[in-house]
Amino acid sequence: MILSYLFHIFIGFLSGSILYSYLWPKWICHIDITQLSDDHNPGTFNAMKLAGPRVGILCLVCDVCKGFFPLWFASKALSWQHPLFAVVLAAPVFGHAYSPFFHGRGGKAIAVSFGCLLGLWPFCNLLVLLAGFYLFFSLVVVIHPHRLRTVWVYRLFAFSCWFFVPFAALSLGSLLIAAVVILKNSYVPEHEQSTVSLWGRPHAEK
Predict the structure, then answer these.
(1) How many CA atoms lie within 13 A of 147 on its CB side?
(2) What is the CA radius of gyration of the chain?
(3) Per residue in 50-70, pLDDT tens?
């Protein structure tokens, strides 16, 4: 039984390790987004910005799918109540963030984390929580820059999932996902200024 969980952990990690947001711009546009971007992140945002919306959307879809499909198959084959399912849930996120194909330096794992939660469909509590916090901090209390917004979103997501999730393994898996994303977004660039605005009104510097 444990071998089944280890197998799905391996598949999820391997799937997450493929950095489509680095590969597609390199293959299609012949550019290295890690060299051209300010933060050197092989992620969807930089692919969209540097390779254009079409390539960026392709990268986004692939990053979501590489989290969705491993979890969708695992959710049909494994018990969600087993403690190891927490690692199954987070495996694609770990793969993306610490890709062995990229010397352990992967992306910030935002899109793939949405894919992992979507893979639990039709159970959508976690997905709704994460999307809801992103919408709140993007439309109501708007936090800039995006890095800081992401940190707050995943902090609240990690805290809230304990109250809205029926299985401890799912809560623990969500905590692992949040920890990875927060860690990958914890680097503060020099001269970064954080601002907060309410309903799009002028920002208040922090």
Answers:
(1) 16
(2) 17
(3) 999 999 999 999 999 999 999
Q: What pLDDT is recorded for position 198?
A: 84
pLDDT > 90: what percent of the chain?
74
> What SS3 string covers the chain?
CHHHHHHHHHHHHHHHHCCHHHHHHHHHHCCCHHHHCCCCCCCHHHHHHHHCHHHHHHHHHHHHHHHHHHHHHHHHHCCCCCCCHHHHHHHHHHHHHCCHHHCCCCCCCHHHHHHHHHCCCCCCHHHHHHHHHHHHHHHHEEEECHHHHHHHHHHHHHHHHHHHCCCHHHHHHHHHHHHHHHHHCCCCCCCCCCEEEECCCCCEEC
So what's the pLDDT on residue 81?
93
Confidence (pTM):
0.91
Q: Which tokens in the block code for residue 53? A: 């919306």
Per residue in 132-161, pLDDT tens?
A: 999 999 999 998 888 999 999 999 999 998
Domain count, the chain: 1
In terms of residue numbers, what domain contains 175? 2-205
Say if residue 201's pLDDT is above 80. no
